[in-house]
Design a protein that fits this description.
- The chain is built from 11 helices and 9 strands.
- By secondary structure, it is of the alpha/beta class.
- Helix 2 crosses helix 3, helix 3 runs parallel beside helix 4 and helix 9 packs parallel to helix 10.
- The radius of gyration is 20 Å and the shape is globular.
Amino acid sequence: SDVCSSDLVIFQCDGNWDSCERIQFLDQVIQKALSVGLYVIVDFHPNPQYTHQLISNGQAADKYLRLWAQIADHYSAIDQDRIVLEVMNEVSVNELYSWFGLLQQSIQVIRHHAPNSTIIVQGAGYSDIWDLVQLPVLPDSNLIYNFHYYEPHIFTHQGATWGLDYWLDIRSLPFPPTEKGVSDAIERAESQESRWKLLQYKLDHWDANRIASDVEFVARWAQERKVPLMCDEFGVYRNFSAPEDRERWLTATRTAFEKNHIGWTMWDYQGGFGVVYKEKGTLRDDDAVLRSLGLKSNSK
């Protein structure tokens, strides 16, 4: 499948969308994906400020729902079978009941304008497993339930400049944790918070079995609900992690998904979590990542 994440500015066009250059460009990308047999996810991928406003401001929520009506009209007319509509990527707001209400309104609006399109839904916060399993029963029958998986963030986001401050303090942290690897990281760390988090990483026994247990939990939840389940984001930030550690984490995660019949999409293609490196206009495969995803054999 192909994920097409939409910044909301794309849709801020006066007049008819058929004559809007930005939307025409997005439609061309989508048509290209459809032409090679891919499914496409069109999602709301806003910044946290936007979603905070949605939850706290009724006018902003009304505008958002009107925009979904237009998007659902537009893309269900192009291909209602292979274009899947995702309500929101990482809501980033933890007000559960506010999100549940907005989510149900979104589903109603999308369904009214796209009667046969599949809709992807997720929990509040950052679409983690614990966010998903708190969702109420949703009445629509053509939904895919979705989560993101980056556990533990101390490993998958080590060195990242966004998010939590202590991530910046972590470098070359192994997966699974080793005595020496964690001790070295603690010695390098500048803050007490980082040292505490590193100690917890070691004590929590983060290994392939721990990941498998997480994934089995959410798979059982979906089986009990009798709903389809996918993970459309997982990955490891590669700038400050060793290739062999990334490969071990990605292999453990991907195989856990497949064992539990959970469809997956890794984040991302050529960015900090990518499957390729882009240098001077040329693409070079990240062989370790491709092996871990089952897309390249060890012999190649």
